[in-house]
Write a structure and sequence with these properties.
Layout (H helix, E strand, L loop, with lengths): L7 H46 L1
Keywords: Membrane, Transmembrane, Transmembrane helix
Length: 54
């Protein structure tokens, strides 16, 4: 039969793969939230500047 030590490399690979997947998932969500917020703030500033000049 197989011993547990033979699976350590495979388990390490799965762990790193899973951590990488969730990190990518988090970063994609965070970066899109950040870009959306920055765009919205720039739009609000531009709108306020336009109202001020009128």
């Amino acid at each position: 039969m197989f011993e547990f030590q033979q699976y350590l490399g495979f388990l390490l690979f799965l762990t790193v793969l899973t951590i990488g997947f969730w990190l990518m998932f988090f970063l994609v969500g965070f970066v899109s939230y950040w870009v959306g917020g920055a765009t919205w703030e720039a739009y609000k500033e531009k709108r306020a500047k336009k109202k001020e000049s009128l």
